[in-house]
Specification:
Blueprint: E1 6-11, E2 15-20, E3 26-30, H1 33-46, E4 50-54, H2 61-69, E5 74-77, H3 79-88, H4 96-110, H5 120-146, H6 151-181, H7 183-193, H8 200-209, H9 218-225, E6 233-234, E7 237-238, H10 248-264, H11 266-277, H12 282-303, H13 309-317
Parallel strand pairs: 1-4, 4-5
Antiparallel strand pairs: 1-2, 2-3, 6-7
Helix pairs in contact: 1-2, 5-6, 5-8, 7-8, 8-10, 9-12, 10-11, 10-12, 11-12, 11-13
Domain Transposase IS116/IS110/IS902 C-terminal: 191-273
Organism: Candidatus Dehalogenimonas loeffleri
InterPro entries: Transp_IS110-like_N, Transpos_IS110, Transposase_20
């Protein structure tokens, strides 16, 4: 019986450090096209069951796509999980080579699920939506500065605000055009926006940052977004449940949509008020509405059905 092999990869802006679990060898490549090709050739020789690397925000993207395109199973994991694993095993020293070995050991022990990569169009839409969030953040910051700015720089700030507003308008037009030209996205967008309280920003964010929507069950989709409550119990103590982790961009968009939905969506407003009347804090009730809204959208996309208050009422009414 052939033994499974697990590879850990530590990636930085300049280098790629590679280790195989229970193998003393260590390889380092440059994090560029040539280095990634050498990495792929090494993996062909190693023939790993699973390759694990940390999510660095962007440095791991090129290597992930190249290895996945060549048929390797690649899992990109939260760096916090690796650090917690290292502490639990007493591995506190830190070098790039050691990090790669820790990741390889993590891969062999935990065996995280491989990452399913979005297609090229989804990647483009995700990049546009990320840029939109950056522009919105800059606009908010500049508008806040304008009220307190010295008169000598006010005109400069106004000019920058004008440019940012034009940039935001261009981004909205480009993302809207991408949706209109993609039949599947257009259908999904129309389904999601049929829900009172759901607008273009949420539908675009879900299409770009959560392509799994409609393909998972409600518990899985809530956990993926970071809206699944976690217990904090110990012995006789029953701690307060809380949410954490997940995809922050999706959670932020869901928050704004739920905030609107509890005002304009009769069923979610009723659900929210019932929770508040039962003693739940308003923030807790709103988080429950966020989770409910996400699960509703997931069910609607799975069944390809638009909003219908009579059909959705039993789903919204249950806790």
């Amino acid at each position: 019986m052939e033994m499974e092999s697990f590879v850990g990869i530590d990636i930085s802006k300049a280098t790629i450090d590679v280790a195989v679990h229970e193998n003393k060898e260590h390889w380092t490549f440059t994090n560029d096209e040539n280095g990634i090709k050498k990495l792929a050739n090494l993996m062909r020789k190693v023939s790993p069951s699973l390759i694990v690397m940390e999510s660095t925000g962007s440095y791991e993207v090129a290597a992930t796509y190249e290895l996945s395109a060549r048929g390797f199973s690649v899992a990109v994991v939260n760096p916090r999980h690796i650090r917690d694993f290292a502490r639990s095993t007493g591995l506190l020293a830190k070098t790039d080579g050691l990090d790669a070995r820790v990741i390889a050991r993590f891969a062999a022990t935990i065996k995280p699920s491989p990452r399913i990569l979005p297609d090229e169009d989804t990647q483009k839409l995700a990049a546009i939506m990320a840029r939109r969030r950056q522009v919105v953040a800059m606009l908010t910051a500049e508008k806040n500065r304008l009220g307190q700015a010295n008169h000598t720089v006010k005109e400069r700030i106004k000019q920058h605000i004008s440019w940012l507003e034009q940039e935001l308008d261009d981004i909205n037009k480009e993302s809207g055009s991408m949706i209109e030209s993609n039949t599947e996205w257009k259908e999904k967008s129309d389904i999601m926006q049929s829900v009172p309280g759901v607008g273009p920003n949420l539908s675009l964010t879900l299409l770009s940052d959560m392509p799994e929507l409609g393909n998972l069950n409600r518990k899985e989709i809530a956990a993926l977004c970071g809206l699944a409550p976690f217990n904090r119990d110990s012995g006789q103590r029953r701690g307060q449940r809380s949410i954490w982790g997940g995809r922050s961009s999706v959670r932020a968009a869901i928050y704004m949509a739920a905030f609107s939905a509890v005002r304009w969506n009769p069923l979610l407003r009723e659900f929210y008020q019932r929770l508040v009347d039962s003693g739940k804090r308003r923030k807790v009730a709103l988080v429950a509405c966020m989770r409910k809204l996400l699960c509703i959208l997931n069910a609607m996309l799975k069944n390809r059905t638009v909003w219908n208050a009579q059909i959705m009422h039993p789903l919204v009414a249950c806790h």
